């Protein structure tokens, strides 16, 4: 069977809401060539459990071309598959396959995105921790540096006092030897 929907359309067919791939009843109606009100009716008449319905179909609104609010559903992959069972025919089967591919494509993109975000977050946290240690180290160095510089200056002063003494002692010992 020839694919009637290209991968380039997947991002239009399936979007991301709260970190999960979803589509809308409007897009389903568009791709299956059905009237939106018929798709809404099918969703309302489905015989699935209330828990399944709540997890997979979220009532939302959209603004139509006249500026009026209209009902619509966002649905998960499972919700879409449940709804799509009622659509039959060769073309419907091809669209179901394309939608499943689109959901899988989006899920893979999310997984890759999450992996990259986790990697970058870990690098960021590591860098932040290292910078914090460096900041604490620099702050401690300010105090240590001042103390060490004072001690080095004091040692220099002491050294200057003892060097002439050593030179004097050397001269004195040379005179005694002479």
Automatic annotation (TrEMBL):
Q: State the Pfam families in the record.
A: ORF11CD3, Phage_pRha
Q: Which residues form the Bacteriophage P22 Orf201 C-terminal domain?
A: 114-164
The organism's superkingdom is given as: Bacteria
InterPro entries (alphabetical):
Phage_P22_Orf201_C, Phage_regulatory_Rha
NCBIfam families membership: phage_pRha
What is the protein name for this chain?
Rha family transcriptional regulator
The organism of origin for this protein: Vreelandella populi
């Amino acid at each position: 069977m020839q694919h009637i929907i290209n991968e380039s359309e997947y991002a239009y067919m399936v979007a991301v809401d709260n970190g999960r791939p979803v589509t809308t009843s409007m897009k389903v109606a568009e791709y299956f060539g059905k009237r939106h009100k018929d798709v809404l009716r099918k969703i309302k008449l489905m015989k699935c459990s209330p828990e399944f319905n709540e997890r997979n179909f979220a009532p939302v609104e959209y603004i139509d071309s006249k500026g009026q609010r209209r009902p619509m559903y966002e649905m998960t992959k499972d919700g879409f598959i449940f709804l799509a069972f009622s659509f039959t025919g060769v073309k419907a089967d091809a669209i179901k396959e394309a939608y499943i591919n689109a959901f899988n494509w989006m899920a893979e993109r999310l997984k890759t995105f999450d992996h990259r975000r986790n990697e970058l977050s870990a690098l960021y946290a590591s860098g932040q921790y290292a910078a914090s240690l460096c900041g604490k180290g620099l702050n401690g160095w300010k105090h240590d540096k001042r103390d060490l510089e004072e001690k080095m200056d004091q040692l220099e002063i002491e050294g200057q006092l003892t060097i002439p003494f050593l030179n004097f002692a050397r001269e004195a010992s040379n005179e005694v030897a002479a």
